[in-house]
Amino acid sequence: RQIRVLVFSKTMSFRHESIEDGIKAIQALGAEHGLVVDTTENNQFFQEKRLKDYNVIIFLNTTGNVLTDPQQLELNRWVQAGGGFVGIHAAADTEYEWPWYGELVGAYFNGHPNDPNVQEGLVRVVDRTHLSTAHLPESWKRTDEFYNFRDLQPDLKIVQMLDEKTYRG
Question: How many Å separate Cα 110 from the centre of its chain?
Answer without folding.
Answer: 15
